[in-house]
Please model this.
Amino acid sequence: MATKINPGFSKELKKYGAVNMNACYNCGTCTAVCSLSTTDDSFPREMVRYSALGLEEDIKSSLKPWECYYCGECTANCPQTANPGELMMSLRRWLTAQYDWTGLSGLLYRSLSSTIAALLLVLAGVLLFANSVDFNAERMLHIGHYFEMTAIGAVLLVIFLPNLLRMWYFTIVKPKVKAPFKNYVTALSDLLVHMFTQKRYKECDGDVHFRWLEHFVLVIAYLSLLFTTVFLNWFGSQSIFVIVLGYVESFLIFVVTIDFVGSRIKKNKSLNQFSQPSDWLFVIWLLLMGVTAFLVRLFIDLGLIETQQWMYIIHLTVLAQWALIIVPFGKWTHFLYRSFAMYFLKIKSMQ
Model:
């Protein structure tokens, strides 16, 4: 079967954030400096060539873009300033759009105006909901709690499950990787380890250990706050342990995301040189999630929430935008797809 080439692929990738990729003259420096590249499994050079040639199907079937943790070494050492690290990031965005059966990920990645319109639409929905319950804080808190549970289930079943099946089809089924069922079971431990620790990131060269620690703390704090808010009903709980736990989790999210936002503003690292709207949305909304959740609980404890309902309306808006836009169609998905990429790689390596 002949390989299909898309001559306009490089132009398409620019819409996903690729910068100066055509400057590459295939010297191989990026692969030479990448600590995760081996003689048997080299990148990012391979992905750079596939992108330049427009080999979409080869890229779609590859897991290599997800193996890159964007330490920035390849970009910093590129003699042509072709920004291979940013290309790998743009490929992850493009792949996210390919996995997404709704097509919304690609639309939101390519169009800032569409993203803003979606955020405003959610804001309008929250205001209509608040008005429908006469801005009653107790009712908003009660219904908001059920919204969180419903949104998690709906996004998982309607968006993520079909998208992960598409990822599996593109990377395992279509390339005809024959893996027995026992491989899927045996490799599950790798899925969980990478999902919660991203341990492969620690293998990168350079000053990455502190950033790995920040990512680890953020993942644990975020997932813990999600559990505390949804399943332990943080806003409605009277348990001192649950209340304090929620405060600590939201504070940790605030501290880590403040550092992430500061790094993107300073642009003091290669990976922060070309931040896209999706990058900003991810860190800013995560920061807002931690801050507004902290303040809502504080207002509850101070007995102010009944008269200062605006605080919960702000939090619910941030939460709804996060749950309905950023989590299913934005950069948050990289957390999920990277974890499953490591899982699929393990399955393939067991052949």
